[in-house]
Structure formats: C-alpha cells, structure tokens
Specification:
The chain has twelve helices and eleven strands. It has 297 residues and is an alpha/beta fold. It is globular, with a radius of gyration of 22 Å.
C-alpha cells in the first residue's frame, strides 16, 4: 500500500471525475486509473462504480472515506512533527482562512492574541472554503478560520474536528442606492431581482443556500453573476449590478459611507458565527499552545 493511493482516492472521492482528479494529482488519467485500481486490489473491494453516466462511491468506498482522510492527515502530521523534533522542520503555524475573513477579521483578531504571535512564524493561507477544507483534510494547515452556520453543509465532521467560536457576523442583503437613497434593487414581490450569487466553492454560498435555497420567499431572484469571492460581489453590488448577501464585517465601510444600503427588512439578515477549527488528534506543541491561547481569548 502507498500513501499516494489514499491521496488519489480522496481526490477522486471529492470530484467524482477521473480527468479532474488526475489533473489535480498532476498525473495522466491512465496512470491515475491504474493507481485507483491498485488501491482497490489492496483493499479487496471496489471503492467506485464506473458507468457511462459518471463515477460514484460504492458502499465500501463510503465506509473507506473517513478513515482514509484521518490516516492521510495523521501520516503528514507525523512527518512534520518528527522533522520539528529533529530540528530540521520549521516551527510553522498555518491557518487556512476564507478570503472574506482574511482581509477583515483575521488581522484584528490575531493582533489581539499576542501569545500566538509570540509562538513563532504564523502562516496565513487564504482561499475558498472548499480549498480550505481540503487543506484541513490533508493536514496542510493546523487551523481553519471560517464563517459558520449550523444549517450549512461541511466536510469537517465532528468525529474528526472540533471548533470554537471566535467572533460573530451577519450576512446582509445589500444593493447600491438609487437617486433617492432607497435601494436600487429591493427584495420584494413582483419582478425578479438581479442576484449576485456565491459559487459552490464558497462557504457563504452554502449558508445563503441553506437559508433561502429551498424556503418559500416573497421575492424572486435572477442570478446574473457567480463568484466565490465576497469582495468581488461587493464591488458589483456597489456598482449597482444587483443584490448580494454580504458579511457586515466586509461591507461595513461601504454601508457607513452610503455606498451600499439594505435591500430588504431585518428578517432577511442571516446571523452567522466565525469559528476556528482544528483536528481532534493532538498536534505539535506549538499548535497546541496556539489553540490554548485561542481558547483563553
């Protein structure tokens, strides 16, 4: 058995597409397929079904998933910890953070934790929620800072990860103002409102979808643009292109200046938490010291 087989499996389980998974693993598709077959031969069971309609996990493949994630992460963590003990590894603390929090909440929050800054080199990795989850599942970061709502879907299961609340935020539907100062786009019955939406990679998009995706609502939305970057949606909302649900921490300056106004009543707000995630398994001494500092703050 080789570790790369587990990593290949996780890439395919995440994409359910051989060509995309092979591209992500920087290998040709035939070579990638052979490695997946080799893993299935080692396990002794098919982990994926392959049909003309696509790829899906078998029941055995579903069962294999959580342990494969934990084992892969543990092996990478073991290597880093051993290098650190030997003096050859950098005592680096990596925090994966979603874009929206990297530019607003994170700098103030981490400056308020002097004990963490004193521990050594702190590395911030800013990306989409989907990419941040992948980093945590692979063990490429010790912590994940993200927006959270109890109804949103997440790959960071409680059996493998724990979290603490480190802040709060609110998703607010915002629009550029019209000539009279009222919202140019208003969420109410009648004609569909131009909607600036989050893509599937976005955690904020998952939250908005959980809140409004399936519920009956008194307004209609017409999606005209999609991005995983809240800052991009903010710029387009400010330009008058449509309505976007934006974190107040990101949009507060534009709201205060009158460049953005609320497009609906307060019952359309979505209260959310800002959470810090970590693996349940014990990490390096520096990471555990950082976690203790975060908990105390």
């Amino acid at each position: 058995m080789e570790l790369i087989w587990f990593e290949d499996y996780l890439a395919l389980a995440g994409t359910l597409n051989f060509s995309r998974a092979a591209e992500a693993r920087h290998v040709t598709q035939p070579a990638f397929s052979r490695r997946i077959r080799a893993l299935e031969s080692w396990v002794g069971a098919d982990l994926f079904t392959r049909t003309t309609h696509g790829v899906a996990l078998t029941p055995a493949g579903e069962h294999f998933h959580n342990q494969a994630e934990m084992l892969t992460r543990a092996v990478h963590q073991l290597r880093r910890d051993t290098l650190e003990v030997s003096g050859r590894g950098a005592k680096l603390l990596s925090i994966a953070a979603t874009h929206a929090l990297s530019f607003t909440f994170f700098p103030k929050w981490v400056r308020g934790n002097e004990r963490v800054l004193a521990l050594g080199n702190l590395n911030l990795i800013s990306d989409s929620m989907q990419a941040c989850e992948q980093m945590m599942l692979r063990g490429d970061a010790q912590f994940l800072l993200c927006h959270y709502h109890r109804q949103m879907s997440s790959r960071l299961e409680s059996r493998q990860f724990r979290s603490i609340v480190v802040g709060s935020d609110t998703l607010v539907p915002l629009s550029a103002p019209g000539k009279n100062g009222a919202p140019h786009w208003r969420l109410r019955g009648g004609k569909p409102v131009k909607y600036l939406a989050y893509s599937a990679q976005s955690g904020l998009g998952r939250i908005v979808a959980a809140q409004w995706g399936t519920k009956e609502r008194a307004f209609a939305l017409e999606t005209i643009f999609t991005s995983h970057l809240a800052a991009t949606l903010l710029s387009m909302a400010r330009a008058g292109d449509g309505v976007a649900w934006l974190p107040r921490t990101l949009a507060e300056e534009d709201i205060s200046a009158g460049r953005l106004v609320e497009a609906g009543a307060a019952d359309l707000h979505i209260p959310i938490e800002i959470r810090l995630f970590r693996p349940l398994a014990r990490q390096s001494q520096a990471a555990e010291s950082a976690w203790a500092a975060f908990e105390q703050s």
